[in-house]
Amino acid sequence: MAIFSNLGIxxxxxxxxxxxxxxxxxxxxxxxxxxxxxxxxxxKFPGPKLYAATYFPYLYRNAIRGTFAKDLLRLHMKYxxxxxxxxxxxxxxxxxxxxxxxxxxxxxxxxxxxxxxxxFAKPIGIMVAERDDHRRQRRLLSHAFSEAALAEQETYxxxxxxxxxxxxxxxxxxxAAPVDMVQWYNxxxxxxxxxxAFADPFDSLQNSKYHPWVKMIYSTVKSSRQMLFFVHYRYxxxxxxxxxxxxxxxxxxxxxxxxxxxxEKRLAMEDDAxxxxxxxxxxxxxxxxxxxxxxxxxxNARSLIVAGSETTASAMSAITFHLLRNPHVYQALVDEIRxxxxxxxxxxxxxxxxxxxxxxxxxxxxRIYPPATTVPARSCPGAMLDGKYVPKGTxxxxxxxxxxxxxxxxWDPETFAPERWLPAAHPRYDARYASDDHTGxxxxxYGPRDCIGKNLANAEMxxxxxxxxxxxxxxxxxxxxxxxxxxxxxxxxxKGPLMVRLRRRCVA
Length: 508
Ligand code: HEM
Hints:
alpha+beta, CATH 1.10.630.10, 54% helix, globular, binds protoporphyrin IX containing FE, monooxygenase, metal-binding, heme
């Protein structure tokens, strides 16, 4: 109350005092809004005024409604490659963001990761570590993702792709009832990465059902996103925090615990005959300051599972959807796969890497349906972007979705056209796509923190797709045209089932 007596208002009646306080708060908000819209250093960047004035529209659409990742296309089409989306946040198209902010910046301060956006309290682990710590961990992990390591891991990957084929053949033979491909791709990618990171698959393919941890993972990612809303609007928590959100938050805690237990189990193993990701890290990990700490090892094991499964399964689900909706593309890919090999056992990671149309289909799905719709945000160190100064501490994030769907960057962007990625010498090359601007197409991000698992992801996608189309004729069950359109995004796509009918192909 000393403050009130200093202001000389301690003797005001309580009602008047309340009016005074509310009035002061309202004037403060008004002045703040005017400042943010007209005088803030980011005022020179275009965007809706409401977004510049308050965090609410961005946070509500992003964290609660899950529509913001796709809304960004409209904003970028209207305002250009840089749009102000909150008082202190800019959304960038990849055409500006990748070359100007994400590229290597030797001798300059980096655009730093923001641990809270991942739900991390501390900068531990490769995803959020600061520059030097990141470099050390990345160097150690990169042994496990080299071409040579990938070749050694093929045995594990092949085992699960074989198992997927077996399970799908069982389904096809049991009367061609429709199957949900989202679920089967999830089973496969989680089993593979579980085997590679923990030496412990989730046995989803074995049991033909979700492991509870895998089932939880989507809700744990969603929970991290939703909680960001309540960081800004704590007082709305009792009104907007639904039972489902509370359950998501509990799932997140359980999932962190389970992955720590699995990682501990792997670290306790003495099996140096294994050639999984951990075996490489441990082989090069020393006990001096260049190695990874125990906490980093366990945190990274979980990060690999989250980063390496959902993303690849999303891309696989979407490629299936787009192929089946575009029969001429489906047929061209089937023809390439079925004429390139004499027998199924010729299909391996090396032999599929050279199939141009298959590679073009994968590039195209990563464009039209980038598994990371928005690349994790960074904090600007104070730098020029597109000729304008962006102050230190401004949050920037690149929208892959807006970049890849903007007709300024890609001709006929809503059409699934693998032809745009073919070399001019290919018989299916189509010159209409020659004007596409590929600068902003970086589905695996760019620079020193780009995706370490991109070779693994591409290898998995090529192998699964080639084996699938070798073995089956596939048909989309009707009534699913809006499968992509209706998906919301909470960092990852909220995918519904993708129902297809599989028929075993008759091989003479
Ligand atoms: C289609 C599949 C995938 C896509 C589209 C994808 C995309 C991405 C993106 C956009 C990033 C963020 C980079 C940044 O913040 O600048 C990332 C990081 C990362 N990804 Fe992937 N990813 C995929 C598969 C995988 C796989 C299979 C693994 C490994 C098992 C993996 C492991 C990682 C790791 C460890 C990071 C952090 C790298 C670092 O900070 O140095 N990803 N990925």
